[in-house]
Amino acid sequence: xxxxILTLSLACATLLxxxxxxxxxxxxxxxxxxxxxxxxxxxxxxxxxxxxxxxxNVGFIVGERCVAVIDxxxxxxIGQRLRQAIRAKTDLPVCYVILTHVHPDHFFGATAFNADxxxxxxHANLPRALQQRGKFYVNTLNRDLxxxxxxxEVVMPTVxxxxxxxxxxxxxxxxxRAWPVAHTDDDLxxxxxxxxxxxxxxxxFLQHTPVVDGSLVGFIAAIDQLKAMPAxxxxxxxxxxALPWPQSLEPEQRYLQLILTETRQxxxxxxxxxxxxxxxxxxxxxxxxxxxxxxxxxxTAAYTELEWED
Length: 310
Description:
Elements: H1 4-24, E1 31-34, E2 37-40, E3 58-62, E4 67-70, H2 76-89, E5 94-98, H3 104-107, E6 119-123, H4 126-145, E7 159-161, E8 164-168, E9 173-178, E10 188-192, E11 197-205, H5 216-226, E12 233-238, H6 250-268, H7 273-279, H8 291-306
Parallel strand pairs: 4-5, 5-6, 6-7, 11-12
Antiparallel strand pairs: 1-2, 2-3, 3-4, 8-9, 9-10, 10-11
């Protein structure tokens, strides 16, 4: 059983830390991508004390009754800055924090919203993924940010999405969709029906090298389905583009399809994993940021997935 005095003390410490931070740090810059839809576009640098883990796009949607947060950033500090951005736009309560998948650049800021008592929405597979990876993610966050990671914790979802879920913010309905294994095994997208704005999260990478942490074949299949969605506006998980929807999906689709084709050819030619990693997809190097950090991992994931194909 938890010590209630210790639990209360920790909660008070977190709130005091948050209050002090809010007084000294500016709100995140946000752009209104469609009426009531506000996005913060993060940088592409790896997590560091300088950026506090601000390296994934996040945002919020304002209804007539309440607000839904779409991802919360890579640390408690970034979550606090996002909360300040919301308060600069509206006094309405935050009723939902939607966690689009398991990667820490998207969820560690969720603790900044605990005082709002929202429902935390996640894919049905997200609790298992957080349980498997949470301790490692906390350790690496503390390694990278040190004391600046204070307050950042793993928050478990309280509402699980197995297929689709409709959330009503007050004259604004959101369609939350759970996807089969693709970028991860717990991807969600959010569609604001009122403005036809699609929050794609990490099913869409722009400029930043796409990341395969689920299934390459599934990721490509998801893109085919995404292209059929009737969006007038969209927010990617990383980067931004002036290209219209669904044309903005084409660079990512080309990259992933190339890995699929060349990995299958490498396997057919009986290339080793090491040989495949050194050769597959190298023609794409000049088209993406952070290529050296993520591309070899993607080829490794593709090879281990595809070597068991019939």
